[in-house]
Amino acid sequence: MVGVGYTLMCEQTGPKDLVDQAIRAERAGFDYLVISDHYYPWLAEQGHSPYAWAVLGAVAHATSRVRLMTYITCPIRRYHPAVVAQKAATIGVMSDGRFTLSLGAGENLNEHVVGAWPHVHQRHEMLEEALQIIRPLLDGDNLSYSGNHFEVPEAYLWDRPDTPVPIAVAASGPHSVELATEYADALVCDVADPAVVRMYDQRGGAGKPRYGQATICYGPDTDDCVKTAHEQWRWAALNWTVKAELPGPESFVSASEAVRPEDIAQVVPCGPDLETHVAAVRKYVDAGFSDVAMLQVGVESQPMFLDWAEHELLPRLREL
């Protein structure tokens, strides 16, 4: 049976409301919660971007059952890897072992606030070094590390959960899949790509969790949903190689000017039809994913979505 998650979208919701959504999502029956880790929203229309780790601490205290996960933290620029390990271990303790740390190479949008954005090849080197730091620290090692990009003269985590925090790595191709199998306990992929899952299995990931994310815009009126999705999510029509390089919301506005409402409706299922949204999850299940987080576009619709998910969506997804 597929694990179904709920996405706490920092880019479209303030911190107190995110905690309230987490409590409601747990009550609705979601298996886990993922939280975006941004410094900026994608578009100014989204209007928020609180510090995800402060929200996670509150959510860990306010919930008792659901698993928690970052989606996705970049440990190469805005955060030093040793600090990421400390934050992850602390949330692991506060959540009584319910936390998974999901890591990726990040986007210019969030990381340039502390300095120049590295070239993609350098970013991949930095991510591997970060994993070489974070993994042993979470395992309880006293670490000294000297790399091309990071220095850790000496580090040890004094507060850790009884079981080390699991790590998931975002992957889309051979190199990132290799990192996921060598250093992590799970795979993350935003695209329902069976080729990535097969590659992960062949390189040693068989039997480990594979996390995806299905973006939808549920609501009683399809046209209203399409309007909301276009207003707040039109950047999703861009290629990831473009999205990783754009420096701010204004750039995403410019880059997505030609995206029409009908274009984004092809990317984001919109409206009230249950089976349309189930199909968005089924794509991941058929591709071999074990867990899929639902991302509901639009802050005003979250209470309605959570009620609908509890009574209709989740019971239907349990059948997959």
From TrEMBL:
It comes from the Bacteria. SUPFAM superfamilies: Bacterial luciferase-like (SSF51679). Residues 14-290 form the Luciferase-like domain. Keywords: Oxidoreductase. The keyword Oxidoreductase applies. NCBIfam families: F420_G6P_family (TIGR03557). This is LLM class F420-dependent oxidoreductase. It comes from Plantactinospora endophytica.
